[in-house]
Structures are given as structure tokens and as C-alpha cells.
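Handout, section 4.2: multi-component inputs.
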Amino acid sequence: MLNVCTPEEAIEIIRREFAGCSTDTELLPLSSCVGRVLAEDITANEYVPDFDRSTVDGYAVRAADTFGCSDAMPAVLTLRGIVSMGSSSGIVIHEGECAYVPTGGEIPEGADAMVMIEHSESYGNEEIGILKAAAPGNNIIYRGDDVFPGKTVLKAGRVLRAEDIGALAALGMSEVALKKRPAIGIISTGDELVPVGKKPGAGQVRDVNSDMLASSVELFGAQAKQFGIIKDGYMRLRSAIVENLDSCDALLISGGSSVGQMDSTCAVIEELGTLLLHGIAMKPGKPTIMGRIGSKPVIGLPGHPAAAFFVSDIFVRELTAIMLGIAPRSFTASALLTEAVSANHGRAHYCGVVLSEQDGKLCARPVRSKSGLISSLAGCDGYFCIPRDSEGCAKGDEITVFLR
Amino acid sequence: MLNVCTPEEAIEIIRREFAGCSTDTELLPLSSCVGRVLAEDITANEYVPDFDRSTVDGYAVRAADTFGCSDAMPAVLTLRGIVSMGSSSGIVIHEGECAYVPTGGEIPEGADAMVMIEHSESYGNEEIGILKAAAPGNNIIYRGDDVFPGKTVLKAGRVLRAEDIGALAALGMSEVALKKRPAIGIISTGDELVPVGKKPGAGQVRDVNSDMLASSVELFGAQAKQFGIIKDGYMRLRSAIVENLDSCDALLISGGSSVGQMDSTCAVIEELGTLLLHGIAMKPGKPTIMGRIGSKPVIGLPGHPAAAFFVSDIFVRELTAIMLGIAPRSFTASALLTEAVSANHGRAHYCGVVLSEQDGKLCARPVRSKSGLISSLAGCDGYFCIPRDSEGCAKGDEITVFLR
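Output:
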């Protein structure tokens, strides 16, 4: 029997033991990449743009021809032509000449600045007056200003946002190498469980954890594989693990939080692999087990839904991040606690909160409930942790809220 | 021609003009609901749990029988039986009696507290010693403690998180009424554009905006419909709008940011509907158009990818939120600016940042680039805004970063 460890130690165990569980790479079309994890550095091998472009509608000029001009004393240039979008300018600008270029059009050879159309006037007869001096480079994006060969545009491990998809499109990457989403198997155990669609009989409750944990891991970037409900019993659990472990990269087993059942889960993991952790000093969530069968992580979560939720949100999130090669992402906010919350005898205590703004300050009202009640967490805006070595939190304390 | 308006005014226009564009409701299986928007309040019509349950492994007792007991002076009770998981206890506890109940098992009639097994000892012969007094209600979840008929568990407009899915599962909701994801059509315009998979020729660039905007709206909770690239020209644009508007709930048209093209987009919207806004005092992003054709929002975004990105992230996010009936979600963090950034003559200036921690403080390095360069935003951790009435931001200023 291993000792109960702290949440920080549990995170350390996950990082140390499962560092090698990184998923493979797969190629996907660009339109399916947002939110996914980039598997390789993206280094450009071309110029973007591949030609000098105007950023305004106006006249391509030789800047020197405009020096000293003004509204009162325009520089008068000869219009050599009009550049069309999407084709080579085909124009060469000599001293005293200009060409009209629309936004995004190619800068003609010989020109080194763009003058906005607002700072020009046309005298007809192909004579254009420039009313404002331009410095070389004005309103021009040069070839390779955005991207040039050898520039690393994105690094492996980036969770791709819309702007990254834009950069990949600019580079012509219609397919992208992504980290595969780890397949995380989910088993619920317990004689008392019935499927969500069924009305519970005497002493029965619905299987809350299968759908909740599936949703949870999908949000972390994994793919959930629900293996359903199995009845209590060492051999049944052993068979379910042996049967399903091959088809997933990690396995979550929830329930079995009574002493006897928890012992079964431990014993199966010890028989088939290595037990790494038995119990975490947190509330709710203490009856948590971690082990490894072959190279695959197997986590036993409490049957109580609220406890399973916190264990998943903290530890399965960390595990999934490691498998994807990313830092686990969670957003936080500082808020003032509206009521005192007592500490919990050496256990980190996680508590849901509802946020509101009062006098321009973010306030967090702790949601009190018995352990295991999932409806108390539904509808919360986030949660916070009272550290295990704390005396509790007082009304008005500033807390860090993990936002949902 | 309408006047240029501020970003705040543009948000107001969206809220006022498109408040009625809320999407319909659809029923989906619970396993497909995470991240989606709840269409109706969820009010329970049953008890969860439907029976009194133990939260520990141990003995169900009449609390009064344990008063005054201790390690030195156990209360000795007669074991009436063992409760099985998933079935009615079938036991009645009288004075001086107890029953073994596993975690989650039903509390027998007559019992009003649970004593943890750690605080008991067995003397054989069905005699159990209780070593610690229990108060009535100890370690029991009563019928309806989690949910009771009439309790509103979740409100319409909630973006469903894993814990909400858990609560819906507990209520037996195997199907849930969700807001339909609005279908947002995307058109790129410009003679210079080639598809991402094609090598640009002279004067050509790849269509960055189609995939970027599609990714963007998917993250906001909408469904993207890419209608491809159309060449410049009033009639071509008009046909593309007429042809595709029926199959989507809103339309984004990017490109056409040269004066002539922008005028075309305006003119088509004015011919077919109502032009609401022409130009936003922001940088990048000024050449933005908003209108309505029939009841449907039509937004013209700048062709420059970085500008299109900011317009989408700010205004299309707001529009999508309104269509889904939610508050737009974005996460922020306070950070210290590592370099001064100058202000922009009456325009709100948006600038990407890279975050790092220095001496325990979050620092934001502004990413400088010419307008329109998407690679400068790729890989950023967020962005911030220098308000249009500001003198700029100094090194060390505390800024609010919109996190990516």
C-alpha cells in the first residue's frame, strides 16, 4: 500500500512516469487544424509575399521626386500606367514618373515609395500632382517582409489558433502535421450504476461519470472512448482492462471508491502493471489511484461525480497535456471571496464558485455542498483551492479562481 | 457614405441591429453537447439521488446509540446485515443495531448516521464496537440533496462544461436542447488571390482569410461555410452574395479593401439591403463594412490578414455570441509592457504580444510589424489595445492582454 500523496506530488508522478507517452503525428487538411497541436516546427522555404506590395491605393513613385512638395507646390509626375491586381506590374518607373497601384498590387520596378491617393490630384493628360513628400519604403510591404526562407513561423507544441491557421495558409500548407489526439478509454464500475437513459431502481443511480469524463477529456484535446459500465468484481474489472487497453492510449476507471472496490482496482493494476499512487490528499478526490500497465497510464477516479470532476480537471488534464506535448492550459482570475471557507485537516480543498462584479471588483461566492454532488458544480463559473497547510480562507481574501 | 465609427460604436451597432438573429434549437445526444450552448433552462422533475446514500464505507447507526462512546468505551451494536450496492437495503435498524453500508449504498430505515469503518471494531458474533460518536446526518447524502423536483440546475445560454454534462447525466437527459451553431458563410474576393494549395504567380498571393476566418468562427461556436474565392467586380460579388446568402445565417466577405473594391461591397449591400457601418477607427482593421441583407448580417472585412483577424476576433466574435445567446467569452491577463508603443492618431491600435514571466511578474513584449503581416501574429500569446484617445503606452505600463 502506497502512502497518500499531495496534489503537487501526484503531478510530479504524472510528469515523471508518463513523459514517454507522447502521441504520434498525423497529417490533416488545414481546415481541420484549429485547436489541434502542431507536431513539428514550421519553417518557411519561400517568401511571403513573393513581391513588393503596396499597402494603400495610390501612386508608386521615386521618393526623391516628391521631396519638398506640398499642397501649395505639388510635384508633378507623369503617369506611366496602372498596375492590375494579381499580375506582374510590367511597368518601370523612371525619374519624374509614377504608376497607379491598388492596395496589394505589385510595386513597379524603379519605384521605392507609395503615396496615398488622398495626397494626390490628377490634372488629366496623364499628369499627377503629388501633395505630400514620401520617404523611401513608405506604404510598401517588401518581398519576404512577412515570411522568408528559413524563418520559423510556428513551433511544435503550439495549440493552433485562427491566426496560426492564417500563417499556415500564407505558406501554402494545405496539410499540416499534428499530434494525434490521445485515445482515452473510460470505464465506469459499480453494481449501483444504470445508463443515463434508464430510470434508476431502488438503490441505483445513473452513470454520471462516463459522459462527464468523456466531455472533460475532449476539452483537453483527447478523444474519448466510452467502454460502458461494468459490475463490481476483480475478474470483471481485470477482463475489462485487458480487453480495452489495446484500443486506447490511457484508461480512466471511475467508481470503486469503496474500500473493497478500490482495493480491487489497485490489485488489478499491481497484477498487470505497476501501482504508482494510492490516494491524494485532496477533498473531494482522495480515493484516486494511478498506475501503469505496459507503457499506458491507468487512473482510478472516485465514483462520486464531483470528486471525479476535480481529479479529471487537475490530473487527467495534466496527463493529456503531456501526451500532446503541451503545457496544460487553464485560465485564472483573481477574485474576492464573499464568505469564509474553512480548511480541511491536511487536504487541499477544492470548491466551486459563482462570480459576480460588485463595485467594479470581481467577487467569488463559494458554493457549499456535500462531497459528490455534481449539481453544485454545474453552473459554476470556476473553482479555487484552499491549500492543505492553510487555516482556511477569510471573507474578503483574494483567491485565484480557475475559470470554467 | 457613413462616417467611420469607434470600435465601441461598432459593438453597439451589432448588439442593436442583430439582437433578433438568434439561432434555432436542436436536440443532440448528451455525448455531443460539451462546448455547446444550452437552449433552455434545465429544471429537474425528479430526486437525485432518489434514496438516502452513504458517503463512506462503514456502519449505519442510530446516532443516539453512539453518544458518549469512545475508544476506551465503545458502543456495542448488533450487526443486522450488510447492504449491497445497487439494491434496496431491505434492512430496518432498531435501537442497539447497525448495518454495514458501502460508499454509495442505501441507508437502512431507522438509521440516521454513518460511522466510518475506521472508527469501529468487530468483536465477531455480529457484535460491532463503535469508537466515535456520530451526529444525526453524518456521512449521509439525503434523497434530493443533489437535485429535487423544481430545482433549476442549468440556465439557458450556458456554454456546457464537463461538470454540466455530469449534472445532465444525473438527471437522465440523454438528449439535450441546444442552440444551433450559426452557419457563417465566408467569401474571399480579389483578383490577386489563389487557393492555399496553389503556388502564387507574379503579383499573386494565397487566400489566407478563408481558412483563417473559418477557424475563427468555429472557435466562436459557429459553423463555417467556405464559398471560395471570387474575382473582383460588382456583378460577381452581387451574384456570389445572392447565391450563397440563403444557405447561411451570416456572411463574411473579406478583401476588397482597395477603395474601388470597398465601394463595390458597400454598393452591393446598399442595393440588396442596408449599410450600417463603413469604416472603424481601429488599426489594423479600418476598412470594415457592416450591413444587413434581409435579416442577415453581412460583414465586409479587410483583405489584409492581420486586419481581418482583429475584426473577426472582436466583431465577428460579438456577432456569433449574439446569435448563440451568450456573452462573448475571452480570457484576459494583466501584464507589464516591456517596451513603449506609440498611439495612433485617433484609432484604437491592436498589437500582438508574447508573454513571459520575469521576476514572478507577467511581462508582455509587443510584436511590431507592418499592417497585414499574419506571421507576426502567429505564435503570439495574445494581444492588447492602445485606446484611440491615449498618448500611447510606456515601458512598464500594466496592460490587459486578451489571451489566445
